[in-house]
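dumping these here so i dont lose them again. two proteins, back to back, each one seq then structure tokens. dont judge the mess
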Amino acid sequence: MSTTAKLPPFDPRDPAGIADLLSTDEKDIAAAVRRMCQDRVDPFVAGWFEQGRIADIRGLAKELGSLGVLGMHLEGYGCAGLSATQYGLACLELEATDSGLRSLVSVQGSLAMFAIWRWGSEEQKQRWLPSMAAGEAIGCFGLTEPDIGSDPGSMRTRARRDGSDWVLDGRKMWITNGSVADVAVVWAQTEEGVRGFVVPTDTPGFSAPEIKHKLSLRASVTSELVLDGVRLPADAVLPEVTGLKGPLSCLNEARFGIVWGAMGAARSCLHAAMDYAGERTQFGKPIAGFQLTQQKLVDMSLEYTKGVLLALHLGRRKDAGTLRPEQVSLGKLNNVREALEICRTARTILGANGISLEYPVIRHMNNLESVLTYEGTVEMHTLVLGQAITGHAAFR
């Protein structure tokens, strides 16, 4: 069989033609987020990383709310109600700018807002979700503790009944948005099992000291949550869930965004390496003309392409209601691991310039060291998949 149809030109930045698999609406969402990042964040993010702070984070949150990306895959309550794939594409564009920016959006929408949207009362939803979707209120998610990471069932934070009230005591650690949050979703052990609580951060006994001296996710607010006799009314508890099902369902939402977001960091570094290799001259010609550099660029492009195809496939499954948690683990494990390798390889192409904040590579590389750990380590996702494949649990 032959055809006379003219082939489309080869796009070095989309070698497999993945853009052809996206709808017009999906392309429009990606383009809108990319424009906002280019205008509002890209000129400043290296400075924020160097300084260890985001300038005017509340103003930025409101701009993200106006764009519609906060809780964008949730229905009602001021949320955009867009598809999982559209949300994934937004995460890719956000993390192409910086993992800290995607973390702000992911924690807001997929952890704090999702917890209230999925497990909260109607009163809790009405009180918090519209203002969070608009970026007028910032949320955080308190699960990880100083000595409790991958084993949340061993958390030490406790909530006890005192009359009709709840009283919370404990510590949470490595909490994105904690120091700037207006509301915290905090998970605690109770006599009934693990329960979630919606905690206004101006409640007496609640504090959130910021964690300093980070060398990763510096353009992101990371905090400890301290709960010393935090007294809450009876209706502060999330009524629709008891047990680890609650927090784990939220983590699964966040992991899905990371599957996409990691590819954004990878794309940024890949494109930086492609541009640099075409401009940097050694031994009389651009280094893009040397075989070893070409091998690096081809390998990076190959892994990036496979990662985006995997993310898109999982997005389609999520939109169809057929995405399993094990498949999210597959995506998170592969895409973050490969994105980190792409960033490291890009650094070698840039040589000494690869460690300069004049280029995005070392910033993405450092950020991905955290992304590799949060929302499930390589080890935990490996064991999740190992159990799914073999039928044998190896966690203990």
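---- next one ----
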Amino acid sequence: MTATVHASAPTVGEALRRWRELRRLSQLELSIRAEISTRHLSFVETGRSRPSREMVLRLAGPLDLPLRERNRLLLAAGYAPVYPENDLDAPQMAAVRAAVRQVLTGHEPYPAVVVDRGWNLVAANSSLTLLTDLAAPELLAAPANVLRVSLHPDGLAPHIANLGEWRGHLLSRLARQVELTGDAELAALEAELRDYPCDSPEPEIELPGPGEIVVPLRLRHESGELAFLSTIATFGTPLDVTLAELSIESFYPADEHTASVLRDRARR
């Protein structure tokens, strides 16, 4: 008979220490930022002292923990989560849905998408079809992952003129997110994307070329090469886990030819 071994969840002290080390902070540095004694922090990390709910949240602040991780930290300490996690379709999220629709509609005729923490597509405006029409239908099945659609060989990758540069930009962004959140699913996604083939040189360090101030997305299209700049917006004061993890990525034409093609498509 084979015994099954179940890994125990980390204690609050172990979780705090892991996050502190991930943020490359010493006990002294974190204690100064949290305005507590190093001795007290040491006792919490080793389990000699059980932190209050207020202390858990006080330490989570300078550790810059996402709301989801603050809730997990509270659970590890034996407290109920304080940050709600409402489905986007919930009645209390009506104002959020309205704001998202307004942003997406107002951005027409330029593409814009809303994604969750795993870069899964939540919503988009009609102009996004300029990009999604280039991808295999199976990649667009829900939940479609916008990074996978971008870099997969059956996605946008064969149509991206500066694939190595754009791929390097996306993977650098994702790597920073993995480091910030410690999210295992994001780490798995990063590993998957890095395994995709790329026949274009990928810069090890993002350095601007002559006259460049951002990394553009250069797309081969039947109307000629299109160039886009992108921005990412988040809600500024979220107190809900779902809301905190939403991002709106908006694409803008980087030249007049691209702007003209987008305007012409909108008139059809």
